[in-house]
Amino acid sequence: MHKRQSVDRVQEASGDLGPNTLLDSDEFSPKFLMLGPVRIADDGNVIALQPSKPANLLAALLLHPNSTVSAEFLQRVVWGEERPVSARSALHTCVQRLRQLFAKYGIAGTLIEAVPGGYRIGADAGSLDLIAFRDLLRAADQASSPERELRILRTALALWQGPLLANIHSDILRREVVPRLTEERLRAMERVFDLELALGRCRQVLSELWPVARSHPAHEPFWAQLVEALHRTGRRAEALCEYRVVKEYLRTELGVDPGPALQRLELAVLRGEDLSAGPPGRHGPHSGANGRDHSGGRSDLSRTAPPTGKPLLSRGAAQVLETLVGAGLLEEGPDGHYRMHDSLRILARGAMELRTEASGPDMPSGT
């Protein structure tokens, strides 16, 4: 099946159906599963391959479906940097072992083709979950509404089942491939959470954001979404607490401060800004071929207005406020107002007395 046909079929199947439609349909029954441990489906049963050289070879081929994978790269995947002297014939033997494994599960050995320079395996969205995942992401870009986009993205993410390539013992794949595929998944998750927030489902999405942010402590977008969701559900103190958690992690573990987006978000929370249109400075990063902003319609999110009755703080004042709260000298009450700790009250009183004494009897105290 050509790639365009795969996308069309995925779009049609996604339609207005539930998120698991593709997974449960007879039409969508991939033979090869690699978004997790590498597995082969056989008559309704899913078999995870044991770690082996043929399993490494299969993973390398499936990561580049319908493309020639060089013999040199395959040798590095299968044997690492300590390749056998007769690596070429050893690779041929490994391919034969993989074809024998295919026969055990009713897969034609001719699916693996010997081509000039290496080998190639044929696959489409109906036979390989990786292709289906990417086709679904493209289909989400073409979605006619945020709700439909969200359903398609959740369908795509449901294809991931466990740690990526967990049963593949290949340093080169873990070093060069796993981070890239993991990033594709994280980007899709960001899109899902952006859409949920744009649709006003802040309270519902919190149950997902808590564990995701903690599982990826260096991934700042998840923390920004968590802080936003907490603030928009009236939990401003918790939002600031979560900001401090990621700030401490980044400083302690990586020696860096939070990025500009997180810092702007913290300032917005301290100011008590209304973030229902999205956090300041975040412009929709996901724009599909139809030109629509795929952050759920939040196309100009830098223009946020403070809620009625809440004064805006200057950036300097907000930073001072954060410092005082962090030092324990100010405490935010449930009504959103700040209460002074006794220590700060004593310091403030002493400062006022010194100011009065310094002004002298003939000088107005307001000078």
From TrEMBL:
Biased composition (Basic and acidic residues): 1-11, 291-301
InterPro entries found in the cross-reference section: AfsR-DnrI-RedD_regulator, BTAD, OmpR/PhoB-type_DNA-bd, Sig_transdc_resp-reg_C-effctor, TPR-like_helical_dom_sf, WH-like_DNA-bd_sf
Matching Gene3D superfamilies: Tetratricopeptide repeat domain (1.25.40.10), Winged helix-like DNA-binding domain superfamily/Winged helix DNA-binding domain (1.10.10.10)
PROSITE patterns the record matches: OMPR_PHOB (PS51755)
Domain OmpR/PhoB-type: residue ranges: 20-123
A Pfam family that the UniProt record links to this protein: Trans_reg_C
Keywords: DNA-binding, Transcription, Transcription regulation, Two-component regulatory system
Feature: DNA-binding region: 20-123
GO molecular function, one term: DNA binding
Disordered: region residues: 1-22, 274-315
Key word Cell division present: no
TM stretches of this protein: none
GO biological process: phosphorelay signal transduction system; regulation of DNA-templated transcription
Alphabetical list of PANTHER family matching this protein: TRANSCRIPTIONAL REGULATOR REDD (PTHR35807:SF1), TRANSCRIPTIONAL REGULATOR REDD-RELATED (PTHR35807)
Family: Belongs to the AfsR/DnrI/RedD regulatory family.
Protein name from the UniProt record: DNA-binding transcriptional activator of the SARP family
